[in-house]
From TrEMBL:
The keyword Electron transport does not apply. It comes from Shewanella maritima. It is an enzyme of class 1 (oxidoreductase). SUPFAM superfamilies: ALDH-like. This is methylmalonate-semialdehyde dehydrogenase (CoA acylating). It comes from the Bacteria. InterPro entries: Ald_DH/histidinol_DH (IPR016161), Ald_DH_C (IPR016163), Ald_DH_CS_CYS (IPR016160), Ald_DH_N (IPR016162), Aldehyde_DH_dom (IPR015590), MeMal-semiAld_DH (IPR010061). The keyword Methyltransferase does not apply. Residues 16-477 form the Aldehyde dehydrogenase domain. Keywords: NAD, Oxidoreductase. GO terms for molecular function: methylmalonate-semialdehyde dehydrogenase (acylating, NAD) activity. GO terms for biological process: L-valine catabolic process; thymine catabolic process.
Length: 497
């Protein structure tokens, strides 16, 4: 039986009237599990109008009441954690453990949104001039929108709407059309948490819906997470239309392995960080740079990767699931083929991997290349599959230059026993998130998710204090109250006297 996915417009769940039907498939065998009617322009208009109307009252709701909605919401997310993770695993193919991680990292942001009152605090200076005080408030922007990718259908929507709404905005979420059931469940629970109708809207669809959000004057800010090309398009179009935009894009993350690192730690961490989640993480380690004698560990990493077995979401022994779609699989396989043709050594080839009984699924086995150079497509392109590229450097300086020459700057890590090497790396590396003996350094929500260079377009990043700045305006007030009978004469200068 296929599920009909619903939009949530003006406080009602609706199948919509759009004639374009998008199929949601189980990536393990490509059977259709759900359908969604892509939103029409009129439906997007309706969502925008409703969010605009709801903003008038929501922005006046006291901050403690807005925080209470978030408190109830994070509680409901925790109560329904496994159920959400099951929906997520079925539509993404992620293993249940991995799906639970996706939900949990989102819950942490919802928890953070409960602190909104402290996060919104402005600044005050008394007596900036005689009897004059200056203080600032942070006020919401209006209607904000979020456009999210397939690879974290719980975490990434939760990076956006809880904080935006806690700040007093209303929000329109346009999640990936490839796995829309998880976001629908997140929205149902938000309604159950007591959010007034209209504060959050959910519209499904593709470019048509996105273009409407990018062009409508009522939308004040756009948060986007997805691929590089689309990220650049969203940033350019949104800012051209005078909107505030934050666009998180693709990545190619390097891990530098020093010869003094703990070998077993390196091997264990490289396996999970490279092929975990089938490599479909924007913070996956896709390039390992071995400095000096560390290259002698390459055969053992290959051996460890060769033992990794993909499988079904509910197979407790499976390390990861299929990639999201036949098109995604085809792209990964074609990059593997290009890697071979361009002269890299494919020491472990997962191109022909399959799972018995699920031969039509989008499986790719763990894959590893050695002798990779910066000119090769497997180095230049984000593969977004379970593929590790191994490179070598003679020194830490050479490794740093290699990483800094990459156009991307989402995440990186170094494995070493030397404080000096780690300090040098963290200081000189031109990447926004650095792990020291931590392979995937995704910051918790009281920090921000701070990708750099081609991995991010904008100024303020996701969650933490930066997200609060992104979703608010600062209003600065300069105020003077007169003592009875002390009215001063005309002031012809701009100085405060
Ligand atoms: P995608 O760019 O294909 O899609 C992202 C969103 O944009 C979806 O909602 C989709 O419907 C919409 N979209 C797609 N094409 C569009 C177009 N032409 N015009 C307007 N909207 C369009 O990305 P994806 O394949 O769903 O996700 C994987 C990508 O996301 C990878 O590149 C990954 O690195 C990146 N990602 C980045 C981060 C980060 O924080 N930097 C986090 C997660 C994923």
């Amino acid at each position: 039986m296929t599920t009909q996915v619903k939009h949530y417009i003006a406080g009602e769940f609706t199948t919509g009237t759009g004639s374009k039907v998008i199929e949601v498939t189980n990536p393990a065998n490509n059977s259709v599990i759900a359908k969604v009617n892509a939103a029409t322009e009129a439906e997007v208009d309706q969502a925008i109008a409703s969010a605009k109307e709801a903003f008038k009252t929501w922005k006046e709701v006291p901050v403690s009441e807005r925080a209470r909605v978030m408190l109830r919401y994070q509680h409901l997310l925790k109560e329904n954690h496994d159920e959400i993770a099951t929906i997520l695993a079925k539509e993404t193919g992620k293993t249940f453990e991995d799906a639970k991680g996706d939900v949990w990292r989102g819950i942490e942001v919802a928890e953070h949104a409960c602190n909104v009152a402290s996060l919104l605090m402005g600044e005050t200076v008394e007596n900036v001039a005689r009897n004059i005080d200056t203080y600032s408030y942070t006020q919401p922007l209006g209607v904000c929108a979020g456009i999210t990718p397939f690879n974290f259908p719980a975490m990434i929507p939760l990076w956006m709407f809880p904080l935006a709404i806690a700040c007093g905005n209303t929000f329109i979420l346009k999640p990936s059309e490839q796995d829309p059931m998880t976001p629908q469940r997140l929205v149902e629970l938000f309604e159950e948490a007591g959010a007034p109708k209209g504060v959050l809207q959910l519209i499904h669809g593709d470019k048509t819906a996105v273009d409407k959000l990018l062009s409508d004057e009522a939308i004040k800010a756009i948060s986007f997470v997805g691929s590089v090309g689309v990220g650049q398009y969203i940033y350019k179009t949104g800012t051209d239309n005078l909107k505030r935009v934050q666009a998180f894009a693709g990545a190619k993350n390097h891990c530098v392995i020093m010869p003094d690192a703990n070998k077993q730690q390196v091997i264990n961490n490289m396996v999970g960080a490279s092929v975990g989640a089938a490599g479909q993480r924007c913070m996956a380690i896709s390039v390992a740079v071995f400095v000096g004698e560390a290259k002698e560990w390459i055969p053992e990493i290959k051996e460890a990767l060769a033992k990794v077995r993909p499988g079904l979401w509910d197979d407790k022994d499976a390390a990861y699931g299929p990639v999201i779609s036949p098109a995604a699989k085809q792209r990964v396989l074609s990059l593997i083929e290009q890697g071979k043709q361009e002269g890299a050594d494919c020491v472990l080839d997962g191109s022909d991997f399959t799972v018995e009984g699920y031969e039509s699924g989008n499986w790719v086995g763990p894959t590893m290349f050695t002798n990779v150079t910066t000119e090769m497509s497997i180095y230049k392109e984000e593969i977004f599959g379970p593929v590790l590229c191994c490179m070598e450097a003679d020194s830490l300086d050479e490794a740093i230059t290699l990483v800094n020459n990459s156009p991307y700057g989402n995440g990186t890590s170094i494995f070493t026993a030397s404080g000096g090497a780690a300090r040098k790396y963290q200081h000189e590396i031109e990447v926004g998130q650095v792990g020291i003996n931590v392979p995937i350094p995704v910051p918790l929500p009281f920090f921000s998710f701070t990708g750099w260079k081609g991995s991010f377009y904008g100024d303020q990043h996701a969650y933490g204090k930066q997200a609060v700045r992104f979703y608010t305006e600062t209003k600065t007030i300069t105020s003077r109250w007169f003592d009875e009978g002390s009215v001063s004469g005309p002031n012809m200068s701009i100085n405060l006297k």
